[in-house]
């Protein structure tokens, strides 16, 4: 019986004994089981990410498993096949090529995922509002450039490991790169300024900005241009260089609006009413919800009336809310002045005729 088993195990198939084939298969199966258990452990520990919330570290690791686990399995299988079994030079070379290509592909996918995830984490720390959708849009904008860089380096790595001489290729790429850079300086300026916008974040997708006489909401930040949806509805396309070289008013950063207004009353207004006007204004502003009073003063003698200067804050950045509150305050001032019989000043001319 023992001799029969030894004879079976010693039987050679494709240049390898049955024992070698069994050991190799056993290593692959045990490796697959271990990887499967590891994957289940991560699924159990991480839990499903909630949409709209920042992922935990365990959830980030869980997302990496779709690249890391195939990569680990390929390494185990290749080590089992080449370390235990014997192949002809042609088959061994074919397995080596297949291993290099597949490992490189999954490795590059893993690297790009880690880079994008790191960028998301960086933007999440800087974004006080924690808008996950906006962060995803920002990362998607730079994804193309990341993929080009990583996969270009990966292609050179694969070619080099397959035994080809890449010196001429790298030299050609260097000369070609210089020529392309000289021919496309404007594009490279825009690309560089895209990274300035991405990392410095003078504005983000969804912000309302004003640049010179153009205003609107940021819809897309591209590698070369940024697209703005204007108040009239049309799309404004500006190069990234123009944006970074301009003075940008970002109203998304505004937490409250300061309102400076002046009111003029006629010179015939009684002194006691003039003294009471600042208190009347303060009372009206204080009872208006969402508004903070700052000051009200009799400022100066104008050409057509006595000028009062009033300052208050609208505790919201929303423009419609700002106009609603200003409308409400102006209407209350008009009603109160009518009640107190205080006349507003307006440009008038008085003609004196001397009678001889």
Can you characterise this structure?
This protein is of the alpha+beta class and 356 residues long. The chain folds into 3 domains: 2-179; 185-253, SH3 type barrels (Roll), CATH 2.30.30.60; 257-340, Alpha-Beta Plaits (2-Layer Sandwich), CATH 3.30.70.100. Helices cover 59% and strands 17% of the residues. It has helices spanning 2-10, 18-46, 57-84, 89-126, 132-161, 167-183, 185-200, 240-244, 271-286, 319-340; strands at residues 12-13, 16-17, 208-211, 214-221, 225-230, 235-239, 248-250, 257-265, 291-301, 306-314. Helix 9 packs antiparallel against helix 10 (319-340).
In short:
This protein is of the alpha+beta class. Helices cover 59% and strands 17% of the residues.
Query: What shape does the CA trace take?
Result: elongated
Contiguous uncertain segments of 5+ residues: none
- Class based on secondary structure composition and strand pairing: alpha+beta
- Overall radius of gyration: 37 Å
* Lateral strand order in the biggest sheet: 6-5-4-3-7
Count of structural domains = 3
Q: Please give the share of residues in helix.
A: 55-70%
Q: Summarize the main sheet.
A: 5 strands, antiparallel
- Taken as a percent bin, the fraction of beta residues is 15-25%
What is the residue-mean pLDDT, rounded to a whole number? 78
Q: What's the total number of strands?
A: 10
SS summary, helix count: 10
Order of helices and strands: HEEHHHHHHEEEEHEEHEEH
Distance between the termini: 151 Å
Q: Note the quaternary state here.
A: single chain
């Amino acid at each position: 019986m023992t001799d029969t088993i030894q004879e079976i195990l010693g039987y050679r198939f494709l240049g390898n004994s049955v024992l070698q084939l069994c050991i190799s298969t056993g290593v692959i199966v045990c490796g697959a089981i271990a990887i499967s258990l590891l994957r289940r452990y991560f699924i159990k520990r991480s839990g499903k990410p909630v949409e709209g919330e920042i992922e935990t570290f365990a959830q980030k690791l869980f997302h990496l498993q779709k690249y890391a686990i195939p990569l680990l399995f390929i390494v185990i299988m290749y080590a089992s096949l080449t370390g235990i079994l014997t192949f002809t030079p042609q088959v061994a070379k074919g397995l080596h090529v297949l291993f290099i290509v597949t490992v490189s592909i999954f490795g590059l996918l893993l690297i790009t995922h880690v880079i994008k995830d790191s960028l998301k984490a960086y933007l999440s720390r800087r974004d006080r509002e924690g808008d996950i959708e906006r962060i995803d849009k920002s990362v998607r904008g730079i994804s193309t450039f990341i993929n080009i860089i990583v996969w270009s380096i990966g292609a050179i790595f694969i070619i080099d490991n397959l035994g080809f001489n890449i010196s001429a290729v790298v030299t050609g790429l260097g000369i070609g790169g210089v020529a392309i850079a000289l021919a496309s300086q404007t594009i490279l300026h825009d690309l560089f300024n895209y990274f300035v916008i991405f990392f410095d974040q003078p504005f983000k997708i969804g912000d309302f900005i004003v640049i010179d006489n153009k205003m609107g909401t940021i819809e897309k930040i591209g590698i070369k241009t940024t697209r703005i949806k204007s108040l009239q509805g049309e799309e404004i396309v500006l190069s990234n260089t123009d944006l970074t070289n301009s003075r940008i008013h970002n109203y998304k950063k505004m937490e409250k609006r300061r309102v400076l207004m002046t009111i003029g009353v006629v010179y015939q207004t009684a002194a006691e009413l003039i003294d009471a006007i600042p208190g009347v204004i303060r009372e009206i502003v204080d009872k208006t919800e969402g508004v903070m009073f700052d000051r009200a003063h009799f400022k100066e003698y104008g050409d057509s009336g006595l000028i009062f200067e009033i300052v208050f804050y609208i505790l919201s950045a929303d423009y419609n809310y700002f106009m609603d509150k200003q409308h409400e305050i102006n209407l209350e001032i008009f009603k109160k002045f009518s009640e107190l019989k205080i006349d507003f000043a307006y440009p008038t001319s008085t003609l004196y005729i001397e009678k001889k």
